[in-house]
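Need the bound structure for 2-acetamido-2-deoxy-beta-D-glucopyranose, inputs here:
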Amino acid sequence: MARKQLLQLLLALMLQTQTLSQILDTGLLQQTMNDIPHVHVMLRRRQLHEDAANANARWFMQRTETPHCTHSYDEEQSLPGVDSRDSLALVIGLPQLISNSGAAALMQRAGVFFYIIGDTLGELSEQQLLQVEQSCRQLWIRRKIYNRYIITDTAIYIYDPFARRDANGMDAWEASFGRLLPFMGGEPLPELLFHNMRGYPLRVQIFKSVYARPVFDPETGLLAELTGVDWEVAQALRDLLNFTMDLQEPDKNYFGERSANGSYNGAIGSIQNDGLDICLTGFFVKDYLVQDDMDFTVAVYDDQLCIYVPKASPIPQSILPIFAVGYDIWLGFILMAFVCAFIWLLLRVINLRLRIVTVAGRRLWQQALAIVVDTWVVWVRVNLSHLPDSYAERMFIGSLCLVSVIFGAIFESSLATVYIHPLHYKDIMTMQDLDDSGLKVVYKYTSMADDLFFSETSPLFASLNKKLWWNRDLNADVTLEVATVGGKAGVSRYNSLIMESANFLLTQRIWIVPECPKYYTISYVLPRDAPWEEAVNTQLLRLLNAGLIHKWILDQKYRVTMRMRTILNQAEDNASPIRVLTIGDLQLAFYVVIVGTLLASLGFIGEHVWLRHSLRGSRKKL
Ligand SMILES: *[C@@H]1O[C@H](CO)[C@@H](O)[C@H](O)[C@H]1NC(C)=O
Ligand SMILES: *[C@@H]1O[C@H](CO)[C@@H](O)[C@H](O)[C@H]1NC(C)=O
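Answer from helper R.:
Posting the output first, comments after.
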């Protein structure tokens, strides 16, 4: 408390003596300050007087619009209670700054740092500048910290990690990149420096995924070539930012699996261990529990996670014709026959009542039976050998014939189609069907499955979640297994199925359940607060706005379609284009003949028994 009052007193005193900061009042830092929401001004506890009187420190306290608060601190100790995204303006001694220790040993790279050199007056000597440069280079190499302004009475210096030193005797790689330069004003450093990275090497990893196809050298097993959308994006970024792409060998664990102690392997593991500067393979944007180490770029595209299952088996040839038309047509066909028979019977009754026709020796129910039989005979397009006497009834039979021709045409055309395009039993259409089918759902990458069926969502998802099964074999081809062996379902990205398993889809070996449980946006990943994050995002947004990424995706899909079409055409050329029906396709006809014969025999026996019975009855009467 006492310290604060002292500070306020000092500030009040200082206000009256208006010595101006010559360098800061020129407005060099204007744009940088506009971007900073708040700045902590730190004065050394031991030199509070001098520091509070420092013209540059006073500029931060009085002459900027940026809100600030003032603290005192101890140069030799690390700064307590600084948030990782805070921006600081520290008055500091030159030796302390060069040593990169104590208060100068900050390990965060999200904030902006202003180091006001406290005790050294006038210009820095050549020797001092070299020392500062060396300490800046160390910070860059160790932690990629660069967003710092070193303010002396006469100049502002920044460290440009991409500027090259003229090669005079310096052979180490470290010496070739990075220079301390006077700051000439303009944009904040993240924009200013990253317009042109001047060939600085960035470690980039791209592994196999939907939009990235690595090709390996068969002899060495090393990456030989890359194709796909992600590679196009990588090349565009390289050209726009002018960095050198130091392409890493793809990790065999791809995205990475989380182990029990929270560490990852794969690309996420590389990022955690500072082995990777940017991974240009799309990741689902979701929580991987590594928010302290990893960041996503802007979303570049999106995709769905879908379940694929073996295609339903084809309907066997023997009963195929029955399924040639829908059940509604069958139902209409059968019901209409009875309705028509009923109408015919009504006509007959009216005729009898009006005595237009007379039918001798037959009771009404016998006539009704005869009418039903005759209707069916007409209905299956057989001619009646004996027509009724009434012309009204004959007209009606004519209309029946016409309707039966239409039904017949429908049946015949459907039959022809059905032999060329075989029908399948009903496929799994919804998640509920999938649950009922009892298939286990196999996945290869935990990142795909860990929130696929979030158990709390519904009892259905809870039940499906229990059916998930992890295939740990990195070389397993789940799609192939589902297509050939069957008996299980798989999880994959929709586009990956469309592009990589198109052959299975076209040959009707697998089936994508139309209800996809999860929708994701997809981003690239980089280490958290990576210096190039903003630059990469800016360029990605430009590519997106220009529609280039969309175009590359369409291009890739087009190439897949063309390849598939060629394969299919070849397959069709080999197979006969015209389907010739064989004796095997006649199966149903034989069944119908057998069943018909059986029914006819039954009818024969029935009629025979009936005749005997009535003969015996009439003999008794005699
Ligand atoms: C890219 O960087 C190289 C240095 O590696 C430089 O010669 C070249 O001029 C830069 N390109 C652009 C467009 O600035
Ligand atoms: C975590 O576990 C993995 C193996 O599961 C091991 O390789 C790694 O060294 C462990 N990391 C730590 C920090 O214990």
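Comments: Residues 587-621 form the longest helix (35 residues). The domain at 24-192 is CATH 3.40.50 (Rossmann fold).
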